[in-house]
Write a structure and sequence with these properties.
The chain is 67% helix and 0% strand. It is mainly alpha-helical. Helix 2 runs antiparallel to helix 3. The longest helix has 37 residues. The radius of gyration is 20 Å and the shape is elongated. The N terminus is likely disordered.
Length: 135
């Protein structure tokens, strides 16, 4: 096996997080994708149907503020879609539920609360502390 083959091969988890139903996790991730897609379609439909004639500048300002907020939310959801696809790939590779920093299993409760997470609670806290120091 060449070094390139080893680099491409997903690492084998040392343990499988106990009590975690991978089928349910996949269902949850796919449901999240469907919900984000539905919200995105609704936003497009609202923007397409919007009547851009306003009685005064206050109404116009409110409409612009609402549009800006909707676009920011869609941008956040786009980033979440990327994370969901990465989590689904980890499920396929057999690396789902393993911390990308320390290689230890991520607690099932953490994975249920945030199915796209890649870090155990300790490594996440460590990263947040480092970020706080950097400002």
């Amino acid at each position: 096996m060449t070094a390139e083959d080893r680099a491409r091969k997903p690492r084998e988890p040392r343990e499988t997080p106990s009590g975690l139903d991978y089928v349910q996790v996949e269902r949850t991730l796919r449901t999240m994708l469907e919900e984000i897609d539905a919200k995105g379609r609704a936003t497009v439909a609202e923007e397409t149907a919007a009547d851009d004639r306003f009685a005064d500048v206050v109404d116009l300002a409110q409409a612009e503020s609402n549009r800006s907020m909707a676009l920011r939310l869609r941008d956040r959801e786009f980033r979440m879609v990327r994370k969901i696809h990465q989590a689904l790939r980890r499920l396929e590779e057999g690396t789902y539920g393993i911390c990308e920093d320390c290689g230890e299993p991520i607690a099932p409760a953490r994975l249920l609360a945030r199915p796209v997470t890649t870090l155990c609670a300790d490594c996440k806290a460590e990263r947040e502390a480092e970020e706080a120091l950097r400002g």
